[in-house]
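task queued by scheduler; priority normal; single chain, no ligands, no partner chains; default sampling; output format set to C-alpha cells
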Amino acid sequence: MSRLRLLTIFMSAMLATATLPGASPATSAQVLNPTNRNTLVQQNELQMLENRLRRQQFQQQQQQFRAQDREIAPQQRPDVPQMKPTCQLQRSGNGFVSTCR
C-alpha cells in the first residue's frame, strides 16, 4: 500500500471513531452491548492501523538511514610517508654485514 493510502485510511478511521458516541475511554467500563462491541472492534482496528503505520514509518526511516550510510564513502587511509631504512655495510672478518636502522 502506498503511504498516502495508509494515511487516508488512518485519518478516516480516526474521524470515524471520534464521531461515534461512546468512543471515550470512560465508556469502556460499561456492559458490552452490540453497539459498544462494535465501538471496541473499531478501536482495535484503529489501533492495528496505527501500529501498522508506525511500523511502516520506522522501516522507511531505517531505509533512509541505510541509504545515507551507503552514500557516505569510507575515507581512505592517508598516505603517510615512510622513511627508508638506512643500511650500512660493515666489514666483519672475510665478509660484510648489513646493519639497518
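post-processing summary
- The mean pLDDT is 79.
- The two ends are 69 Å apart (CA to CA).
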